[in-house]
Each structure stands twice: as structure tokens, then as C-alpha cells.
UniProtKB/TrEMBL annotation:
Zn(2+) binds at H297, H301, E320. It is an enzyme of class 3 (hydrolase). Binds 1 zinc ion per subunit. Keywords: Aminopeptidase, Hydrolase, Metal-binding, Metalloprotease, Protease, Zinc. This is Aminopeptidase. GO terms for molecular function: alanyl aminopeptidase activity; metalloaminopeptidase activity; peptide binding; zinc ion binding. InterPro entries: Aminopeptidase_N-like_N (IPR045357), Aminopeptidase_N-like_N_sf (IPR042097), ERAP1-like_C_dom (IPR024571), M1_APN-typ (IPR034016), Peptidase_M1 (IPR001930), Peptidase_M1_aminopeptidases (IPR050344), Peptidase_M1_dom (IPR014782), Peptidase_M4/M1_CTD_sf (IPR027268). PANTHER family: PROTEASE M1 ZINC METALLOPROTEASE (PTHR11533), PUROMYCIN-SENSITIVE AMINOPEPTIDASE-RELATED (PTHR11533:SF174). Signal peptide: none annotated. GO terms for cellular component: cytoplasm; extracellular space; membrane. Its EC number is 3.4.11.-. Its cofactor is Zn(2+).
Length: 850
């Protein structure tokens, strides 16, 4: 085994394991420092002269090993930066058996959004993947589960939250000592503390579990929806797993500055405020759905991740894919009118896009160290993983799949597991060869393009790996659970086929002519489909017969084929032109997304003007018919359709009538008139009005940001500042990046907004390259934000931009974002090539339009 002094991929030896931590922490919030003392109960299975803990920037001052009634001090205490460990060396071998380690140490708050850090008025922890070692000397790998008994000493007058309920409080001069109930066995990354002037909802009981939602006092009125979501989904999760909730309480806390969306700490779930807090009266439905989904995702983790935990970070997907899939499933049960699975399709699209790159990675891949674990928090792990679980559930059936999950939970309770344990449980419950299906999809990167060609009642299917780079080929195949849906003389039918080989011929059931056929019914399969010309014409002529998810896939798959050089952009635009009377908001969102890309990247000058006019002609009548003002009792789906049309006509086409309608409404909204804009129109309307706005509007929005309590509204205003296209205002927006106006958590989003501004892009890109170290420093070293900064550069447009980005990241690489760098460069390279290949084709198509 490699030694920690020489290997950053070092893993702790398993011969010494913790059973229980009993720790007291004293926090000095003014000095941003802390001190600690703890006793770790240990099991030593083999004698050793060394005891190795994780620790970063911790000064250990007093260490004692105790076993068999004897105590001994280490001969040396050696911090090792490369492996983030502290090596304790003893003159004599430590004996096997039960033992304990007493440790005293000091440290400082982390400058950044991990470890123990300051977020405005709040001190909070964020330990996943491997930052508990910034606060505790500990065994900071997920396989080392132990009980934790914590006491925290803080200044009086502050709320103190931990994983368990408070069991004791004492006053110690100016400090208050708060002792929490000892936890169940937990991995170190799931321990959490939050300290600050927080207020909570009243505790509400769910089958014996108290639930509370916390925020800063000025945001207390925004906690109700997140609280209600937790109350609604917690019993549904207990029912699904067939196991009670294990962690005594649920506290949900909005943190003012937070790297991720949320973190599933056992019993103490921390959130970026925008993912938890909202005003139901003014929040767009998309914000409500997002909060409900995130709350459910984190609560699902209390079983899948916290109760049964991965052994190592290569199985991170076991946590995240399952929680992703489960969140949509449970919220769909709670609010079926929200049609959450159509939102899931939009999430899945990001994974399909990423997984078609050569630089993708398998759902389950090698992770050598904690830094590499951080790069696994992406669309492949979450969305592809969730889509594959959904596909497997569809293959096994809901009942057998759930029974397999329950068996897995019971068998590995309080312990760690690997992916094979899950496949075994599912296979046993379903009596099906799950491992064959799962291993191919989880262990192999990429996905297939299934080609479907109809000849009478015979259907030829073939598969090959799909790449978006034209001309790239490889020979992988998958066991593809293809679900066919088609209409013939007997009506609409479904037929299932497991496509194992590169090619197969299927005889369709039923009789008579096949009027149309889709080869991914309900879009539940993680693959793309290519139809021959007659098959595509039949589908295009029968769009209303297709489910919304199938219409979305038809557009998305055709666009992917355009990117891969296997279909023409003209054919895609002809297909898009058939959606002018589309009434489903989710389908419209897909259409608008495709049109936005073409307008921004594949048109210039007069062609851009013509294309905007074509969009307004296609979708403007729908907006005119609906109008901007909702009628009383109007359904959410109608409101969302209006929002899609406003994005298309006002946002992409830059229609002057739409701008004239939006501007006074936005002005009245900024003056406090709550009903001036229907909530679902806020993002699009504020963005388009800001784009054409003047200095007075810029000042108005800027002044509202600090005092705005609603996090979604505050974020909307912040990003609106990056949209102004008056040159002097683009310059002002750039300067704000280095001010307190932009919180650390919002740095990458703000950079993306600046790079997306067509007038200010080049000036900001030049400045960004010269100030690269300052831009990187603004993230506070947060790995997720660093990756998003790199990904934001995918908004660049030209070959010159691409070459400049390549040179920048070669000269100043971001070690935490190696994967994101490769993926973003590959994707931008393809975008540039597509622009060079298709601009003239779009121009020719526009000239043919009446």
C-alpha cells in the first residue's frame, strides 16, 4: 500500500476503524477560529506503529492513545499535505483490540464554501466529499461509519443546529455549551453544524419525526412552502422504503452562501436559499417545482446514502442517481398535475448531450482520491444515473423494483454497499438478469443511437454508439430495452423489445398499415432514435398522436443528428415549423431551446433579423391569442405556455410589441405592484427589459438586490444586470463581479451571464483572460464553482474564442476541473464547427421562406 507521505491517492488502512467520536468544539465567530477536543473509540484489528487520521490545517497539540489500561503518546505528529492526513508514529506497536484516541487541536474557518465557513451572519459546515477533515481530525472516508456525540460552545443568543436534537444546554460565562443527541452510525461527510441568528417554523410531527425549516429572521416568511413539501413527501418516502426515518428529526436550513444546491446531512439538511425559500404568491411554478424536487431529493438520501452508504466515491451514483430518480417519482405522486416526468426529460437531455462526447465518463468509474470525487457531481452521475434506474424499473416493473430496493435497505442497514449489492437485490426480487442490463449501462460510457426502419409490418432496428462529433464511430452495443408505440388498424399499441445485438428485425403485432411508429415510447429509454425519411414524415404528420414526451424527443433527437452531421438543419427547421400551434408548455420549451441556439450561434446580420421574424411569425399568434394577463382560475399549464411564448417572441425574436408590453409591467413590478406580471413571466420579462434598459433601470435593479429577501427574486435581479446591452452598462456589470453584490455562490452564474451578453462578451472575455487568477480566486476555491466557471466558457462563439480558451487553460489549468475542461473544450469545438458548417445552410433555408 502506498504511504500518505508520497501519494495523493492514499486510502486509509482498514486495520484501525472508529466506532464513536465524542467531541467538544469551541467556535470563535469573530476571529473565525475554533478549538476542539475529542475521544475516538477505535477497533484495532492488527498491531501497528502508525495511526493515520485525515486533517487539513489543523494543529494537533495533545494526543494520547489508550488501550488495556495503558496510555502512550506518539513519538511524532506529522501533517502530510499531499494526502491531507496526519500521521501519528509510536515507538511501540499499538496493540490489537478496543482502544481510544484523545486529541486536542485548533484551526481556522475555511476561506471558501467548504469545511466550517462563514456565510454572512451564519457559520455553517459543508463536508461532502472530503472536508470534515478541515474541522475534525477524523477517518474521512465514507466506509468508516461511526457514532458521533458532539457538544458545541458558541456565543450566547445564537441558534445552534446539529445532526441530532439538543439534549443539554449549559451557560459557561459568555459561551453557551450545546450538547446534541448521539447520532446513528454515520460517515464523516454527513456530519453538520449550523450556528447563527436563525428562526424556525414550529415543529410539525410526521409519524413521530419533528420537522422544522429555518432561515434568517428577515426570510422567515419564505419557509412555509419548503416545510409543507417535507411534510408531504416524508411519509411517502417511508412508505416506499418500508422503513421508518432513522435520524430523530428533520431540520432544513437556508444558508445565505452555499456551493451546491443542498446537502443531505443526516437530520440537518442544508440548502442554498433559492432551493428552499420562496413566496408562493410570487414564485414561478418552476421555482416551486425545483424546491419540491430538491427537498425530496435530500430526504430520499436519508435512506439511500445515509442509512446505506457507498463504500467509496466511485459509487457516488448509488446516492445521487437514486435520489434524483426518487425525487421526481415522489413529487409526481404528490403533485401529479405538475407532470414532473416531463421536467425529468429536460434534465435527462443534459446528460444525453454530455454523454455523446468523447470526454464523457461512465456512471461508475474509477475515483482515485477525494478531489476526483468532486468531479463526479455532474449530469452523468445524477441525470444519466437516474434515467438508467428509471429504465431498469420499467424493465422489471414497479412492484419488483421496489421490493428489490427494500431488500437492499434491510440487508445493508447502517452499513456500506457497492453496486453489485443493489443488482443482486433487484435481481432476486424480480427474478430477472438485472446485472447484465445494469452493468452495461453503468460501467460503459456513452449510449446508443437506435435506427428504426419500417417495411410493412416488419421493423428493422440497429444500434451503434452515438457521438455528436461528425464521423466518429466505435463498436459498443448495449442491451437496449426498446419500447415501441405505434398505430395500425387495431388502434394504438405498445410492444417491448430487448435489443441485445447490433441489428434485429421485429415483427409488429396487430394488423393493417402502420400509420406511425415511435421507437422510444414515453421517452423512458436513455438512447436517441433515427428514423428513415418515410418514418420521420409519418411522425411529423401525426404530431398530435404523440405524447408530449415523444414530441420532445422527436425534436431533441433530430437536433442531435444535426449536430452529428447526420441530418440537415433545414430538415430540423422544417420540423420545427410544424409546431406553430403547439399547446404543451414542455414541448414548447424544447422547441424554444432549439430555436434559441440557432438564433444565437448559427445566424448573423440580416439572417439573424430574418430568423427572428420567422420565430415571431411562427409563435407570435399564440402569444397574441393568450395575451399577457391571465384570467381568473387559469390552469398552470396555460400560464407556462404563455411563459414559453414570451421567451420565444420577446426573448429570442426580440419582438417590439412584446417589449412594449413587458416594459411598463416590469417598471410597475419594480415599484412594488405585485400583480403587474404573472409570476411565470418574471424571468423572461425582466431579462428582455433589462437587455434594452438604460442606466436608470440598471440603478433601480442594483439598489434592490441587497434588501430583497426572496432568493429567487434576488437572483433574477442579479443576473438581469448581466443582460444590459448598452456598452457603458456592460462595463458597469463587469465591475460588480469583484464586489459584495455578487456572493461567492453566484460567481459562476454571473460570469456565465457576462459571457452570454452579445454586446459585452468580447470585452469581458478579454478582461477575464487578463484577470484569470482573480476570477478563479472569487470562487473561494470551491470545486463545483470552479467547474462551472470553466463550463460557462462554453458560451463563447468563434474559433478565435476556442483557441484563446485552449491557450488560457493550458497556461493556467484548473486541477479541480480537468474533466469539465475536456468536456467544455470538446463541446465548444463542436459548436464552432457546427457554426462554420451550418450558417450558410440556415441562410439558404431562410431565403426560401415566404
Amino acid at each position: 500500500m502506498a504511504h500518505p507521505t508520497e501519494d495523493k491517492n492514499f486510502r486509509l488502512p482498514t486495520s484501525i476503524r472508529p466506532r464513536r467520536y465524542a467531541a467538544t468544539l469551541t467556535l470563535d465567530l469573530d476571529a473565525k477560529s475554533f478549538s476542539g477536543q475529542q475521544t475516538i473509540d477505535l477497533d484495532v484489528s492488527a498491531p501497528s506503529n502508525e495511526l493515520i487520521l485525515h486533517g487539513i490545517a489543523l494543529a494537533l497539540s495533545d494526543v494520547t492513545f489508550r488501550a488495556g489500561g495503558q496510555s502512550r503518546k506518539p513519538a511524532s505528529i506529522q501533517p502530510v499535505a499531499v494526502s491531507e492526513t496526519v500521521v501519528l508514529r509510536f515507538d511501540e506497536a499499538l496493540p490489537a483490540g478496543a482502544a481510544s484516541l484523545d486529541v486536542t487541536w485548533t484551526g481556522r474557518f475555511t476561506e471558501g464554501l467548504r469545511g466550517l465557513y462563514q456565510a454572512g451572519k451564519v457559520a455553517a459546515t459543508q463536508f461532502e466529499a472530503a472536508d470534515a477533515r478541515r474541522l475534525f481530525p477524523c477517518f474521512d472516508e465514507p466506509a468508516f461509519k461511526a457514532r458521533w456525540a458532539l457538544t458545541v460552545r458558541v456565543p450566547r443568543g445564537l441558534t445552534v443546529l446539529g445532526n441530532g436534537p439538543v439534549v443539554k444546554e449549559t451557560q459557561e460565562g459568555p459561551l453557551r455549551a450545546v450538547t446534541f443527541q448521539e447520532t446513528e452510525v454515520l460517515s464523516s461527510y454527513l456530519i453538520a453544524l449550523v450556528v447563527g441568528p436563525l428562526v424556525g417554523t414550529d415543529a410539525q410531527d410526521v409519524q413521530g419525526v419533528p420537522v422544522r425549516t429555518w432561515a434568517l429572521p428577515e426570510k422567515a416568511h419564505l419557509t412555509r412552502f419548503g416545510q409543507d413539501a417535507a411534510l408531504a413527501v416524508l411519509p411517502r418516502l417511508q412508505d416506499y422504503f418500508g422503513l421508518p426515518y432513522a435520524f430523530t428529526k428533520v431540520d432544513q436550513v437556508g444558508i445565505p452562501d452555499f456551493e451546491a444546491g443542498a446537502m443531505e446531512n443526516a437530520g440537518l439538511i442544508t440548502y442554498r436559499e433559492v432551493a428552499l425559500l420562496l413566496d408562493p404568491a410570487t414564485a414561478p411554478l418552476s421555482v416551486k417545482k425545483r424546491v419540491a424536487e430538491v427537498v425530496t431529493h435530500e430526504l430520499a438520501h436519508q435512506w439511500f446514502g445515509n442509512w446505506v452508504t457507498m463504500v467509496w466515491w466511485d459509487d457516488l451514483w448509488l446516492n445521487e442517481a437514486f435520489a434524483t430518480w426518487m425525487a421526481f417519482k415522489i413529487v409526481d405522486q404528490w403533485r401529479p398535475e405538475w407532470r414532473m416526468w416531463l421536467d425529468f426529460d429536460a434534465h435527462r437531455a443534459s446528460a444525453l448531450h454530455l454523454d455523446a462526447l468523447k470526454s464523457t465518463h461512465p456512471i461508475h468509474g474509477e475515483v482515485r482520491n477525494a478531489g476526483e470525487a468532486g468531479e463526479s457531481f455532474d449530469a452523468i452521475t445524477y441525470e444519466k444515473g437516474g434515467a438508467v434506474l428509471r429504465m431498469i424499473e420499467g424493465f422489471l416493473g414497479e412492484g419488483p423494483f421496489r421490493e428489490g430496493i427494500r431488500q437492499y435497505m434491510r440487508k445493508h442497514a447502517r452499513a456500506n454497499a457497492v453496486k453489485e449489492d443493489l443488482w443482486n437485490a433487484l435481481g432476486e426480487a424480480a427474478g430477472q438478469p438485472v446485472e447484465e442490463l445494469a452493468t452495461a449501462w453503468v460501467g460503459q460510457s456513452g449510449f446508443p443511437l437506435v435506427t428504426a426502419k419500417l417495411d410493412g409490418r416488419g421493423l428493422s432496428l440497429s444500434q451503434r454508439r452515438f457521438y455528436t462529433e461528425p464521423g466518429v464511430r466505435s463498436g459498443e452495443t448495449w442491451p437496449v430495452p426498446v419500447v415501441l408505440r405505434y398505430e395500425d388498424a387495431t388502434g394504438v399499441r405498445e410492444q417491448r423489445v430487448l435489443l441485445r445485438d447490433a441489428q434485429a428485425t421485429v415483427k409488429l403485432e396487430g394488423e393493417g398499415e402502420v400509420k406511425w411508429l415511435t421507437a422510444n415510447a414515453g421517452s423512458t429509454g436513455f438512447y436517441r432514435v433515427a428514423y428513415d425519411k418515410p418514418g420521420m414524415e409519418k411522425l411529423a404528420a401525426n404530431l398530435k398522436a404523440l405524447a408530449p414526451s415523444e414530441r420532445i424527443s422527436l425534436l431533441a433527437d433530430q437536433w442531435a443528428l444535426v449536430r452529428a452531421g447526420e441530418a440537415s438543419v433545414a430538415d430540423l427547421l422544417d420540423l420545427a415549423g410544424r409546431f406553430g400551434d403547439e399547446e404543451d408548455d414542455s414541448v414548447l420549451d424544447e422547441l424554444v431551446g432549439r430555436l434559441a441556439y440557432i438564433e444565437s450561434r448559427l445566424t448573423d446580420g440580416e439572417d439573424q433579423v430574418r430568423f427572428r421574424a420567422w420565430i415571431e411569425k411562427l409563435l407570435g399568434p399564440g402569444l397574441k391569442k393568450l395575451g399577457w394577463q391571465p384570467v381568473q382560475g387559469e390552469a398552470d399549464r396555460v400560464r407556462l405556455r404563455r411563459a414559453s411564448l414570451v421567451r420565444a417572441v420577446g426573448g429570442i425574436a426580440r419582438g417590439q410589441d412584446a417589449l412594449a408590453e413587458a416594459r411598463p409591467r416590469v417598471e410597475r413590478m419594480l415599484q412594488g405592484e405585485r400583480d403587474a406580471l404573472e409570476p411565470n413571466l418574471l424571468d423572461a420579462a425582466v431579462g428582455m427589459v433589462a437587455r434594452a434598459g438604460d442606466a436608470a433601470l440598471f440603478d433601480t435593479i442594483l439598489q434592490k438586490i441587497p434588501s430583497e429577501p426572496d432568493p429567487a427574486t434576488q437572483r433574477r435581479y442579479l443576473l438581469a444586470l448581466t443582460a444590459f446591452e448598452a456598452p457603458e452598462l456592460t462595463e458597469r456589470a463587469r465591475g460588480l463581479l469583484y464586489t459584495d453584490t455578487v456572493k461567492t455562490q453566484d460567481v459562476s452564474s454571473f460570469v456565465a451571464g457576462l459571457l452570454g451578453n452579445r454586446v459585452g462578451r468580447d470585452a469581458w472575455w478579454a478582461q477575464m483572460r487578463t484577470q484569470w487568477k482573480d476570477v478563479v480566486a472569487r470562487t473561494g476555491g470551491a470545486p463545483m464553482l470552479l467547474r462551472r466557471i470553466v463550463e460557462a466558457m462554453g458560451l463563447l462563439r468563434t474559433r478565435e474564442h476556442l483557441e484563446q480558451m485552449q491557450a488560457l487553460l493550458k497556461a493556467h489549468p484548473i486541477p479541480e476541473a480537468q474533466q469539465a475542461t475536456a468536456q467544455t473544450l470538446e463541446r465548444l469545438s463542436q459548436d464552432v464547427a457546427l457554426r462554420e458548417r451550418c450558417t450558410s445552410e440556415v441562410s439558404a433555408w431562410l431565403k426560401r421562406q415566404p
